[in-house]
Amino acid sequence: VDMGAKLLCFFLASALVAYYVYIPIPEDFEEPWKVMLIAAAFRAATHLAEVADQLGLIHHVEALMLITTVEYIAPTSDENVTVMDTEFNNVGVRLYLPRKPSDGLRRAVVYFHGGGWCIGQAGMKPYDRLTRWTSNRLNAVVVSVNYRLAPKYRFPVQFEDVYLVMKFFLQRSVLSQYGVDPDRVCVAGDSAGGNLAAAVAQQLLEDSEVETKLKAQALLYPVLQSLDLNLPSYQENENKPVLSKSYMVKLWSEYFTSDSSLREAMASNRHVPVESSHLFPFVNWSNLLPEELKKGHVYTSPTYGSSELAQKYPGFLDPRAAPLLVSDARLRRLPLTYILTCEHDVLRDDGVMYARRLRAAGVPVTHDHAKDAFHGVMLFVLGPIELAVGHRLVNRYIKWLNENL
């Protein structure tokens, strides 16, 4: 009996491992086994976090934050870059100051990490690596921001934190203290950080107190709207590696509230009230996506939701949370822009639509579309699982900064 029980356990464990590891991987991924392992690890982590949450042990976001704690590294200087943690305007930042001599004033990048406004930090290995490389390769000052996170802090706290840092840094006296050229400052971020970077760039244009203009913005697979969560990219990539549609919906709703009624409304795409219908043209993918991304999807008019949700949680209709919701007139004055989108990403169409709208408004845009990549791919450039495509995209991003900043 003992042997039979052991065999049964072995088969069950094998089935569970196979269930996690095996997911259909698109043919154009060059390292499918690595992608499978990454996807399995993320699914296991999010499932465990969900179970812990349902058992009342710990909030699912706090459970995932434990992972970022494991990934944390203290500020460590090396022969190229001095690294330190400090505060700008009472918000934590990690500063990267190049040690190489500079002919004149340096360039600067202010970076916001991703993690769905809920998880992540500047000191996580993948972010520390990316910002350190950026500083070293561009001989640039890099400011990586530790904004406060949901569920403890809701919108607009995350936006206000990064905006305070940006405004502080753009003061002439601060720029000169760090030897930064006021004409060569870029804001950048990935995923939710790309969302914050886009919102900050827009808000700076409206702020009469800020004299320094941004030279550029770099948005890496950014999340840019919460109006239509049924775009072709949401439908096609519903269960693709790392970021599923259901998890993105969860992160969006968590940004505003723990009230599950918002999450349920967002999941069925019935959260926008009829009085906000004037916003839909800003995200109408039938006009804003190229034919090859429509792939036979048919645009249907939105199903309107209750006004009550929008009154309680107006954040999801606020351009500071959804930068695609601003008028063309407001887009016109934005700086030079780099947008990276990944084919196999629920957020793909957000970035594609923003690139299209910015170009139409006359903003110079470099839109890099990675056909063989998924959400978050630039985090996998060193460590237990490295992806060649991650390296390639990091290099493309840094090369663009080098040529345009």
Automatic annotation (TrEMBL):
Q: Which domain of life is it from?
A: Eukaryota
A GO molecular function annotation here is:
carboxylic ester hydrolase activity
Q: What keywords would UniProt list here?
A: Disulfide bond, Hydrolase, Membrane, Transmembrane, Transmembrane helix
What transmembrane ranges does the database entry give?
Answer: 7-25
Q: Which InterPro entries is this protein grouped with?
A: AB_hydrolase_3, AB_hydrolase_fold, Arylacetamide_deacetylase, GDXG_lipolytic_enzyme, Lipase_GDXG_put_SER_AS
Q: Report the active site residues.
A: S191, D345, H375
What is a single cellular component term in the Gene Ontology annotation? membrane
Record's PROSITE patterns? LIPASE_GDXG_SER
Domain annotation Alpha/beta hydrolase fold-3: ranges = 109-268, 316-378
Identify its protein family: Belongs to the 'GDXG' lipolytic enzyme family.
Name of the protein in question: Arylacetamide deacetylase
Q: Which organism is it from?
A: Aptenodytes patagonicus (King penguin)
- Record gene name: AADAC
